[in-house]
Design brief:
The complex is a heterodimer of chains A (879) and B (111). By secondary structure, chain A is an alpha+beta fold. Chain A is built from 30 helices and 23 strands. Chain A has four domains: 2-58, no CATH class; 119-340, no CATH class; 350-524 and 748-878, no CATH class; 535-745, no CATH class. In chain A, β1 and β2 form a beta hairpin. The two termini of chain A are 45 Å apart. Chain B has one domain (2-110): Arc Repressor Mutant, subunit A, CATH 1.10.10.10. Classes of the chains: A alpha+beta (879), B alpha+beta (111).
């Protein structure tokens, strides 16, 4: 500051000295003093210009200019709050949406597990079944096989998650935990916050110990060391707490809350299992991780695991029957996935929609840039006079450009701040949407990388947006600008092409939105073979397991209780509900049907209570439903669906036919309509239903459901919450909900895409409307005298409105054409998300064009109306 | 009167300034006067180019400047030649000689 003042003073006095000396010279030659001074100044030329040139020589000027530019920018922006608001909102939208998605992808993909030592060497070892899953779990025998043979990795371990009701100090709590094999903590490289962590010895023989998470230690025990040595009671097993995990360790699934960790060898005691999981090579229920040995690349590990798994596959497929399963098994592979950020489960679920969303918000950002550029350009056009004056006063092109960039930079800073805030809100909303009622401990907290990304995008957007008008300003002619503000042709062309770009992007987003929305609508209209409305569902948890006799008693008691609740039409239970995640399959033999060699001889099975079909709304087509007597009778009745009849019994009367499965021979007593079990996209499997109690599950192993006559089915929730502990004090209601919730859950990704696609499509529409409104309003204001003349020569109001709206059409047609081309190219990437529509669905394109046209014509109508109201006399007089 | 005055060739102003200042330290006005006098009013220096040139040369380290009392008693900014400037002057003068000689030769041949 001081330096700048000094420089200015020196420049001034140097020039003043010169002018004074020349004045003296003239006076000495006899010129009168005043005339002498005038001539000296004249001879010196534009003193201001020279001063400006001199400043140019000195580099320190740049800083001074920057300060001046910024101060000027603040002043001008404060004078136009409307522009400022719309520009900052536009930026906040573009930047906020982008950094929110980016931070989610970051949290999901790139954020290394905290606290863990050298997380980048971690890998997840998975089975890959083409078209089925990319991160399938492994069995205990497979884990041992891989662990003992792989040389590229060390410290292999397996984990499975458990949810349980535990009691500590007499207080009950529902918690989540992990069961881990011996190498878990050593491979993670953790040291305890208190006590000790689990050791390989704890897993070698079942040892009733547990480690609690730091969060739980703080929440439940206030970080009191006395927590060590306390006991956790669960399902009749007592675990002793031996230590606390280090602070910040989120487990290997950072999005999941977890309270305690127990040795995997305790699994049977904790979960009521029978040790089968440890022996059966195809009981794939475990997540496996390991650490790459130093210097080993993940590619090499992948190559090795591939060949080791090939040997395992050859070995295991030898005795494998049926042939169908063998075929599928032979396509199985094993692979090592990066384990830097923990397990890949959530990533596999959400990476596709998030990637598409990233594409969508990138378009939104592009749109925001086009819109901002348009705003800045319109502003520059409105400031022609000011720019001309500044040029006349000696501002160079660079100086003007810098002035525009200063304004853009200021907007970028505001935009970044607003975008940053918007991102937090938006990311939280997205996580909430993804969790869909569950707890999803994803923390998309923007860190410095996200901020850097935000700032970079914001700065780039503003520089790009500021550059165009800034360069234009450099070409502003001195003269016309001062005389009157006539639109410079190229200026107008740029503005118009920006609007075309906005139309094109909006069109693309609208096509995407309508495809996603149509997909969702079609999916909701799919006939799933059930009536979704008016059904209450729940299941139960228990502190301990029950004897078989007690289980049956409780299960019947629950249904009896449910039936007596007010408004309940029918109550029932089933092992698995429609649209959950699919049914189990079993091999079947059907009377009168011969399987071809290699043919799939399995059917989907479900165990259901009487009244199940009435409760789910699946029509009974032939025969009868199950009843109470079926459970105790010597015969084994079964009900099959239409697909079963179609595929196994075509043309024959199904009632009375025998089906054998699991060494039980069933007699078909009824046929029901096909109901979908996996999701709405997949067809109904051929299904065999048998009476529920035959399954012999604990009460926790069934879903209970009740169809109500009217009103909100959730009103039953508090009633059942009171009733269940009365049936057995160890039990409580878990996951009360409605059938609709289940369907919504199965359409989570589709709903997310439709909601966000629609949201961004709507925003794009608003932005495009603002864009066309701005440009038309500006053009009308510049064409006042032309329009006035037209009116004076007899043009009607209608024709003037038509004249202005023609402008909209002139921009709309190329915009829609460009957008349609872009959309046709881009929607292919979302093809796997669509249902019932093709990526180039003509209706979706037509809808997008119609929406865009209607909205923009409406936006253009206001300026058109203003044009039509122009008073010819006033218009002609004004310039 | 205007007809026997010549504009300076692009780039020669720097050399002339260096030469004038090489004789003795001078302020801007003095330099302009000196060029006019020595060239017997043939060369007219535009102040609009002189001052930026001075500042440029100073920035490049060929001139150094200090404020001292002028012949009128008032403070003025005096420019003097640096060692670097002296080298630059020698180089530019040699270059000019070569160029002027070449132009002369062409003009004579053409006659």
């Amino acid at each position: 500051m001081f330096f700048r003042k000094k420089l200015e003073w020196q420049l001034d006095s140097e020039i003043a000295y010169h002018v004074d000396r020349v004045t003296q010279d003239y006076i000495a030659r006899g010129t009168p003093p005043e005339e002498a001074r005038r001539r000296a100044l004249l001879e010196f030329g534009g003193a201001a210009q020279i001063r400006e040139d001199l400043r140019d020589v000195h580099r320190s000027r740049l800083l001074a200019d920057l300060r001046q530019d910024l101060a000027y920018a603040v002043r001008t922006l404060r004078r136009s709050p409307g522009f400022l608001t719309s520009a900052v909102l536009t930026l906040a939208l573009g930047i906020g949406a982008n950094s929110a998605i980016f931070s989610l992808i970051d949290a999901l993909m790139f954020r290394p597990l905290p606290v863990v030592s050298n997380p980048s060497a971690l890998v997840q070892l998975v089975r890959v079944i083409p078209q089925h899953c990319a991160d399938c779990r492994v069995s205990y025998p497979l884990y041992e096989y891989l662990r003992d043979r792989l040389t590229s990795v060390s410290g292999a371990f397996v984990v499975q998650d458990i949810a349980s009701s535990i009691t500590i100090d007499g207080i009950d709590e529902d918690v989540y935990g992990d069961e881990v094999s011996g190498a878990f903590y050593a491979t993670m490289g953790l040291s305890p916050a208190a006590g000790r962590l689990l050791l390989p010895e704890d897993d070698a023989v079942p040892t009733p110990v547990a480690v609690i998470s730091y969060d739980y230690w703080r929440r439940r025990f206030g970080c009191n060391p006395a927590a060590i040595g306390k006991t956790i009671a669960h399902a009749g097993t007592i675990l002793t707490i031996v230590g606390v995990e280090p602070e910040g360790f989120p487990g290997i699934e950072p999005w999941r809350t977890r309270e305690f960790t127990a040795p995997l060898s305790m699994s049977d005691q904790l979960g009521g299992g029978n040790g089968k999981w440890k022996r059966e090579w195809d009981m794939n229920s475990l997540e496996m991780m390991a650490r790459l040995k130093p210097g080993v690349s993940i590619d090499r590990a992948n190559a090795e695991i591939g060949s080791v798994f090939a040997a395992w596959r050859t070995d295991k497929s030898r005795g494998l029957h049926p042939l169908f399963l063998r075929e599928r098994f032979l396509h199985e592979r094993a692979a090592a996935l990066p384990g830097l950020a923990g397990l890949n489960g959530l990533r596999v679920d959400f990476i596709k929609p998030l990637t598409i969303l990233m594409g969508i918000v990138a378009l939104v950002l592009l749109l925001a840039c086009a819109n901002l550029s348009g705003l800045l350009l319109a502003r520059a056009a409105a400031r022609q006079r000011e720019i001309s004056i500044r040029r006349a006063l000696g501002a160079g092109n660079n100086r003007l450009l810098r002035q525009f960039l200063a304004e853009s930079a200021l907007l970028a800073v505001f935009g970044a701040i607003a975008g940053f805030a918007a991102a937090q809100w938006f990311a939280r909303a997205l996580v909430h949407m993804m969790a869909n009622g569950d707890v999803l401990a994803l923390r998309p907290t923007p860190d410095w990388r996200v901020f850097a990304f935000t700032a970079a995008v914001s700065a780039l957007a503003c520089i790009l947006a500021g550059l165009a008008p800034g360069l234009k300003a450099g070409k502003t002619h001195l003269d016309p600008g001062l005389r009157q503000s006539r639109v410079v042709g190229s200026h107008r062309r740029l503005g118009r092409s920006l609007v075309v770009v906005q139309f094109a992007i909006s069109m693309t987003l609208l096509v995407g939105a309508s495809l996603f929305i149509r997909t969702l609508v079609k999916l909701y209209h799919v006939d799933a073979g059930v009536r979704v409305g008016g059904v209450f569902l729940f299941n139960v948890s228990s502190k301990h397991h029950f004897s078989d006799a007690r289980s049956v008693e409780i299960e019947n008691a629950i249904l009896d209780r449910l039936r007596t609740l007010p408004g309940v039409v029918v109550a029932s239970a089933a092992n698995i509900l429609p649209l959950g995640n699919g049914l189990w399959t079993r091999e079947v033999k059907v009377e009168g049907y011969a399987f071809r060699p290699g043919e799939d001889d399995t059917a989907a099975i479900n165990a259901v209570a009487p009244g199940y079909f009435a409760a789910t709304g699946t029509p009974l087509i032939l025969g009868r439903d199950f009843n109470e007597r079926d459970e105790s009778g010597p015969a084994h009745p079964a009900i099959v669906n239409q697909a079963f009849v179609r595929e196994f019994l075509s043309g024959q009367p199904p009632i009375g036919k025998r089906v054998t499965s699991n060494d039980v021979t069933y007699e078909i007593v009824g046929v029901v309509k096909d109901a979908k079990y996996e999701n709405l996209r997949k067809g109904a499997p051929r299904t065999l239903y048998f009476p529920w109690l035959e399954l012999g599950n604990q009460p926790m192993g069934y879903n209970y459901l009740a169809r109500v006559a009217g009103g909100d089915p959730m009103r039953l929730a508090p009633l059942m919450e009171r009733a269940i502990p009365q049936i057995d004090s160890a039990m409580r209601v878990r996951q009360p909900g409605t059938f609709q919730d289940v369907v919504d859950q199965s359409l989570l990704n589709e709903r997310m895409m439709a909601t966000l696609g629609g949201f961004f499509g709507l925003l794009a529409l608003i932005v495009a409307c603002l864009g066309i409104f701005g440009i038309l309003a500006f053009q009308v204001s510049k064409r006042v005298n032309e329009i006035g003349l037209r009116v004076a020569l007899g043009a009607t109001r209608g024709s003037i409105i038509g004249l202005v709206l023609r402008e909209v059409l002139l921009l709309l047609v190329p915009g829609c054409a460009l957008g349609a081309i872009a959309a046709a190219f881009l929607t292919r990437f979302a093809a796997s998300f669509l249902f019932g529509v093709t990526p180039t669905d003509p209706a979706a394109f037509a809808l997008a064009v119609a929406t865009l046209a209607a909205a923009t014509l409406a936006a253009g109508f206001l300026p058109a109306l203003r044009a039509a109201r122009i008073d010819p006399m006033a218009a002609l007089r004004c310039d | 009167m205007a007809s026997d005055k010549s504009d300076l060739l692009q780039g020669t102003l720097d050399m002339l300034v260096l030469k004038i200042v090489a004789l003795e330290p001078a302020h801007g006005y003095g330099i302009a006067q000196r060029i006019q006098q020595i060239s017997r009013e043939v060369l007219q220096v535009q102040q609009g180019s002189l001052y930026p040139a001075l500042h440029r040369l100073e920035k490049r380290g060929w001139l150094k400047a200090d404020w001292r009392a002028s012949e009128t008693g008032r403070e003025a900014k005096f420019y003097s030649l640096t060692r670097l400037g002296r080298k630059q002057l020698a180089a530019e003068a040699a270059n000019w000689d070569r160029l002027a000689g070449a132009v002369q030769m062409i003009l004579k041949t053409a006659e």
